[in-house]
Design a protein that fits this description.
Number of strands: 52
Shape: globular
Largest sheet: 22 strands, antiparallel, barrel
Strand content: over 45%
Number of helices: 13
Helix content: under 10%
Amino acid sequence: MKCRFKMPSDWVRYGQYLLFFFFFCSLFNTVTAQNAQPVTGTVTDERGAVLIGASISVKGTTNSTLAGENGAYRITVPANGTLVVSNVGYTSQEIPVKGQSEINVVLKSSATDLNEVVVVGYGTQLKKDLTGAVSVVRTSDVLKRQSTTVAEALQGLVTGIRVRGGGRPGSEALIQIRGAKNLTGTTPLYVIDGLITDANRDFNSFDIQSIQILKDASAAAIYGSRAANGVIIITTKQGKSGPMQIQASARYTVQKMPLYDLMETPEFIKLNYQAYDNAGVPRQKLDSTVNTNWQDVAFRTGSMKDLNMSFSGGGESGSYYVSGGYFGNKGTVIGTKFDRYNLRVNTQGSKGIFSIGENLAISNANVADMQGNPVVDVYRLLPTIPVYDNTHPGGYGYGDEQKARTFGTNPLAIANIVNSGVDNFRVRGNLWSELKFTSFLKYRLNLGYETSRDHYKYLKKDGYWTLNQSYDPSIANENRASYENKLVENTLSFKEKFGKHDITAIAGQSYQKINYAQIWGSKRNIVQDASGHYYDVLDQGDGGQLGGYRQEADLISYFGRVEYAYDNRYLINGVLRYDGTSRLGTGHKTGYFPSVSAAWRISEEKFFNVSWISDLKLRANYGTLGSSNIGYYDPFPVINTFPTIAMGKDQHIEHLGTQVKLTNPDLRWETLEQQNYGFDISVLNNKLTLTGDYFIAKTRDVLYEAPIAMTTGNDGGNPLVNALSLQNNGLELALTYQDNADEFKYRGTLNFTSVRNKVLKLGYQGNDLYTGLTRTTVGQPLGIWYLLKTDGIFQTQDEVNNYKNSKGQVIQPNAKPGDLRFIDLNDDGQITNSDKMDMGHAWPKFETGLNLFGSYKGFALAMDWFGSFGAKVINGPRIAMDGFSDNANYRKGIQPWTPENPNTNTPRALYASTLNSRGDIDRWLENGSFVRLKLISLSYDLPKEWLSKIGFTNAQLSVSGQNLITITKYTGLDPEFNNTNIYERGYDFGAYPNLKTFSVGLNFGF
């Protein structure tokens, strides 16, 4: 079915009329514009060193240039204009021209970035004037790391963000800002150059100019119903006035997979026979002549190639930035890879009061998927199984009932038999225009467009890869999908200063429309040629099937923000946004999202006279945000049109439609209410800065899938309901010390984040929610581990017989010496699910990052550490390797209990029994804390006197490593694993681990 949220039909025309109206109303300003004059000069620092690349612009215009060789610049300025001169690491200056033709500028070194311009929703602010919780990420810190996505590179760089990634080619990192605020998705909203989109694996980090993260309600409220999970604003690079500049970078990376320490054939046979003997089951006829290392079969050395080049420049009336890039990743698992090509064109220009610009990005990406899960299969398969076996159809080894019973998959076989991957072509960008028809009033039109075309191909050839696999003929499947995202925004901004009063205001309207369509088809018995090649096109084979669907969603919004500052001491910020969406139920489609924030800069008060404190500001805010992270048509019934029925005497076929999923027509917004209290302090002449925030966030009407019995006719999945309330409260601290005054420049940042998650309300009269190994209950965090508690190992039969409840009943009468002893929590004389208890959760108590940087002359050393503490996690691979209950390989050196070896915490090996190996026991619960060296990088800038001889302006050589050191008690491959299940975030199901990487790079420009 199709449901459309009706929107005003003439608002686009209104925006166009408004644009022309402002243009003609401003002709008077253009005609009376004052005469301009050229201004020249140089830019140096306090020691007289020239600052090549310093930015010089005319205040209130887009006219800008860069200081060139010897720090010289030339720019055309109105006689009464003002120059704004800035450079990274230095305090900006504003200099009135007053008819001068030569102005030499000396910039003072700044140990802080308080005067840095920060991009916020639909505008900018000085960092020192922020009233909300906004984190600014140094782009250089992101680019030092070799990563596929932006989110992956943010870990440990700022407070309040939890990131979990992985090393699989093309994989997306899981990012969460200030805790789990809902259940249907924790991905923040991305805004790139004003386009609401995402920075997924097709986005090129090389193009990033700045990254800001809006973490609280006051900062993100301008985005209303989509900002509950936070907002990440990315601005890409723009050209500067001056000669064309060329920048290039090349980096080559080698990746290493962490490995399990598994048994080889002799040790495995001995322990496997012991497990069979203890169970009284006839032994397998294991082949002792085979000793296969399945990790050698499945894994290989991976590599990355990251190549980029940009061209930028411009004149007094416009600028351009053009870049191209290639990113290639050969995965550490056989058959996996990721390739991406990027092209970006950013241009802008101005004429009088009119400015126009565009940001266009084109990408083409291809992912070759991982087949099965080799991270699990390498220990599920036995070392006594050969890689190839001519007795099996297809010729691959995967065990048999007599010699090696296993459920493992031969990773080489499935990689060769199954081929699948996705091609994605994406175009996204925006076109904007501005009219500055007075010095304080500006109109902006922003048109955003994004489209992508996905082509998924799957081919399964004839063959087998696992034991007892049923026959399935060769199959070809293709899936093509199209996505369109259209955005139109009109904003009117006001900025003026009246004495000590400074007012900035913005009012706007936004409309976004999303269309998604998909069509798919499949065929069986695909034809082969004489050489065995498959014709993987859908005009071959038989048994054809096809399908498809279309979806669309609309969002219309009106918003406004007012910023008021008095004497640089008292700051107030108010935001109101109104949203209407087509995704929610009738009567619940619209919502208001207000926020208010304030700050007091105590350091500007007359009574404050502390010389060693440069800046001290207190902040507080309150606001609401929304979330509607659901499907396009979730409030509406799902109709299955496939059923048919034979009718009448002639038994003719009639087509039917049946409702297969119960739905909830009353779905409404998830609403986040958040308070934030913070402070910013700079001391020691701004060398030392400390920022702290405490927040309380409550989400009402959280959407989740209510479990309903299929006997009700609910055959299409559980319906969504607004039935939970969640709370997250946390503390964030960031301490930075930096000194750039001497040749030796250094910076260190220590950040700390602690978030507590709690369920305030549950649906179904507050009944607990059980998911996997977890229980969710009111007053506790999401997904508490709900497990049976063990109490050591029975050493003798007398201990078994004497283990009784209060009534004298033997609790585990079937146990033997060497078996686990379980606690009978309810004292009923038996071990059941009623004896399970809460045993911690996967949410860390706190996480911290330490980022160090130092440079001397041409050398620079950077080091990033990240730590996570207090999480309890389930080691899923250990259940198979240490459980002994089914056929899997074992960890090398493990010593299960025997009468001769009773001093061990590993119970006796027992095949075909879950007595000691069931998954819901605390035996598999481990400490998930870790400290990891995320990055260490050494770079050298070649001397400029060398470079000038070949016409280069800069060149840098670098070497780096990532994930080289990990300190942890976790016994799995990687304590930093990723699990997308919100309830079982700490369950390691055999996740693809983070990889050790070694990189060499070259950056240069001319």
